[in-house]
Amino acid sequence: MRQCEACGQPFAEPATHCTRCGHPLAVAAGAGHLSRVSIAGNPGPVSYEFGGRARPTAPVTPVTPASAVSPDEPSSPGSPDYDPDATTRFAPIYASHSKAKNNAALVMLAVALIASVASLAWLIGQTVAIGPSAPRATAASSPTSSKLSTALPRNTTVCSPEVVRSDTTNCTLARRVLAAVRTLGTDVPPTFRVTVTDPQTNKNVTLVCSVKGWIECKTGDVTVFVRPQ
């Protein structure tokens, strides 16, 4: 037989209140029902009179139902959902942000590398298309021309390093022919004419000149040779 928790009065199982003090009686746990503490909550310290004295009873600790546990609190170590560090739940978010930053940096590096390679390829293409500058051609006189220009014509008389004459004329006429040829410049045609005054007859004389190593100017039996420039 069970007793009342407040006054100690014995009672039978079907009773719900104490017949002495009227205190609600707890249902036996074996019956598969919740106790009064679970249903009504903890009433706090209870005192009752027995033999003229009030005796306090031990406070009943309320049983917190499993559904009242906050979902934000970490599970127990034995639970499959136990998380020793609550901050680890944010690790996937941090990892996602870090991965996005790394991908952006790799994309920028690849773009810069492609731009550098394109610039280098363009410079190489321009160099190949233009090619190296060709050396300027230098006017080199042929061996024959050089030999003719240094060798004096036969049967001539030297009037100066630049002009010689035949024996049928004089150096005054030869120098006048030289002056007329020099007025034409360096770019003279293969055949041309010059007119000078003969100092002996004081008449104009026209000579036909042709470039043959020396510039040979003739009229009748008079011949004058002018060194080319």
UniProtKB/TrEMBL annotation:
Sorted UniProt keywords: Membrane, Transmembrane, Transmembrane helix
Organism (species): Micropruina glycogenica
- Superkingdom to which the source organism belongs: Bacteria
Region (Disordered), start-end ranges: 50-84, 134-153
Answer whether the UniProt record assigns the keyword Transmembrane helix to this protein.
Answer: yes
Name listed for the protein in its UniProt record: Uncharacterized protein
Q: Cite the record's Low complexity compositional bias ranges.
A: 56-81
TM segments? 104-125
